[in-house]
Amino acid sequence: MADFEYVDVNGRQIRVRPRETAQEIDEYGNFHRQPNRFTEGFGEGKNPVEKDRYILFWAKGCNWSNRAAIARELLGLEDAVKVEIVDWTDREENLGWEFVNSPDHINPETGAQFLSELYYNADEEYTGRTTVPAFVDYKTKKVVNNDYHWLTNHLETAFRPFHKKGAPDLYPEELRPEIDKLNKWLFENVNNAVYRAQFAESLQAFADGYETFFTGLDAMEERLADKRFLFGDYVTDSDIRLYTTIARLDVSYSRNIGPCKHRLVDYPNLWGYARDLYQIPAFRHNTYFKDFAASVDLNEADEEYWENTYYDIVVQETDWDTIWKTPTGRESLSKDPAHKFKAEK
């Protein structure tokens, strides 16, 4: 049995959460993201597909969980899958995500104060980071899925009986092999590459992540030169994944990885594409620029400048919504300019 460190919080024994650098850095300083522990799907003898059984826990600053929140709203699953936004609290120990938006920080469906409690209910020997998104079965009070790579696809397929009428077909059957291929490429070259730079512990590891990330953005800039969205005229699952990364570039990642080779606004196609998506209500409702900015990693020397100057003045006083609502003109690239979605059949 592993030897875990615990902290008493209001009579609860809460396990201290490991940091990214504790288990995910190799001998050369490369960051290797931990594998997802809970990957079982839904339906057909797996986790049952039922209304009012699951809660999606996510965090405003987290790229990975932001995807599921957008997909849930696009598909009209608000009445089928509950949602709660988690956050950190200022504690001496790293205890992970806390239910700060629940009364007394106690989630009413599970009775837990920290997301980690629901992870350890599912696997008491789990040694990884307790991450979001986390899909929790509140009948069992256990995390049943934390697989950010496939969770949106589960919402798009297994939960289809609960989709709203006219829901967008984000994962069309005829495109699934291509979408899966692009999603894998996006993970390796864009979504996770920026974190390989952020968490690197050697110059070579940083350079590898940094160059991979910006080369990936260059490729997406070229792809979007003659397409409104990644697969043409309509939004798909892949667009959600690219959006949640590029929306953070100028306000968060630019601080986390040092001087950026390019800003989002330096990519005319990506910048217009990002605004085109933001102007869809489900994207806009789940985009929190001030929280993205607050999620940067800072050393002590930068913290005073960040809090007193950049964050309090630039971030707080910028009218992000007006900037991101400016017209894009990208409808001219579409054969169906009046619509951004193809409805499910």
From TrEMBL:
<dbReference type="InterPro" id="IPR016639">
    <property type="entry name" value="GST_Omega/GSH"/>
</dbReference>
<dbReference type="Pfam" id="PF13410">
    <property type="entry name" value="GST_C_2"/>
</dbReference>
<dbReference type="GO" id="GO:0004364">
    <property type="term" value="F:glutathione transferase activity"/>
</dbReference>
<feature type="domain" description="GST C-terminal">
    <location>
        <begin position="172"/>
        <end position="296"/>
    </location>
</feature>
<protein>
    <recommendedName>
        <fullName>GST C-terminal domain-containing protein</fullName>
    </recommendedName>
</protein>
<dbReference type="InterPro" id="IPR010987">
    <property type="entry name" value="Glutathione-S-Trfase_C-like"/>
</dbReference>
<dbReference type="InterPro" id="IPR036249">
    <property type="entry name" value="Thioredoxin-like_sf"/>
</dbReference>
<dbReference type="InterPro" id="IPR036282">
    <property type="entry name" value="Glutathione-S-Trfase_C_sf"/>
</dbReference>
<dbReference type="GO" id="GO:0005737">
    <property type="term" value="C:cytoplasm"/>
</dbReference>
